[in-house]
Amino acid sequence: MTPPNYPFWQKTFRNASDDELDQLHEKFYKEIGLKINPITVYDPTTKKTLPPNLLIKDLLVKKLILEKDDMKTLLNVAFWRGYFAFNMGFEGFHVDGVECYKRAVELAKQTQNTLPPELASRFNFRYGVAENLDGYPKYDITVNHCLEHVRDPKHVMTENLEHLKPNGYAYFTPPLRHGCDSPTHLHHFMEEKDLLNLLPAGFKANIYRVKFQDTSPRVNIFVMEVFHK
Q: Is residue 212 within 8 Å of 179, Cβ to Cβ?
């Protein structure tokens, strides 16, 4: 892929309005030569699901969620290609997905349409922004993959938590310092306190440090688990 122009893209994303995000992502991915395609999550011959491989950070989130009892609904904000969303749907969750890149929404729906009806009905993928989740209900679990990408992470965290049931859990997975950096990252979280400072009143959190993926040379991701006090 072509190396991106960091200063240009960071400034452009920071100054963009919500309505501009879709086309801005399209231009950015075109410049760096990144193409995304539907993923294969079901074998019609064997009638078996094929859960996509997850990154280490998402494996930890999945593990923490599955340790909880009576969790059935999940909101996945910034689902990208749907790896995490489909994993959790195959675990029995009803998954609502929100994504600000329209092509990602289209591709997730294409993948969803390859599933038999009883599985496909567990997923609902829609275009939207993390800053405004009006119209969505409250969930047992919310998972946000875009805290580092948004202009106001405190507002986005609060918006997510407003859609959490009283006994629910929310998860955020921003990079640690400049780990896994990208010109679309508008914020960097240096220590746990930087994340704790975003918490609204009435919540507390567990914060873990993990690798992004097996090949990461060092621990470079936070996994933040938030719940009501």
A: yes
Instruction: State residue 107's pLDDT score.
Output: 97
Average pLDDT, the chain: 96
Tell me the angle at which helices 6-15 and 21-32 cross, rounded to the nearest 10 degrees.
170
Q: Is the pTM of this model over 0.70?
A: yes
* Separation of alpha carbons 17 and 150, rounded Å: 11
- Per residue in 199-221, pLDDT tens? 999 999 999 999 999 999 999 99
Distances (CA, A) of 154 to 32, 126, 141: 29, 23, 19
CB-based contacts of 208, cutoff 8 Å, min separation 6: 60, 222, 223, 224, 225
Cα→Cα distances 102→78, 175, 177, Å: 11, 24, 29
Angle at 167 between CA 165 and CA 171, to 5 degrees: 75
- Rounded Cα distance between 26 and 66, Å, is 34
CA distances from 86 to 26, 73, 89, 144 (A): 23, 13, 5, 15
CATH topology of domain 6-228: Rossmann fold (3.40.50)
Residue type, 157: M
* Cβ burial, residue 99 (10 Å; 0-12/13-18/19+): buried
pLDDT at 130 over 90: yes
Lookup: tokens for 132: 């405004």
Q: Which amino acid belongs to residue 173?
A: T
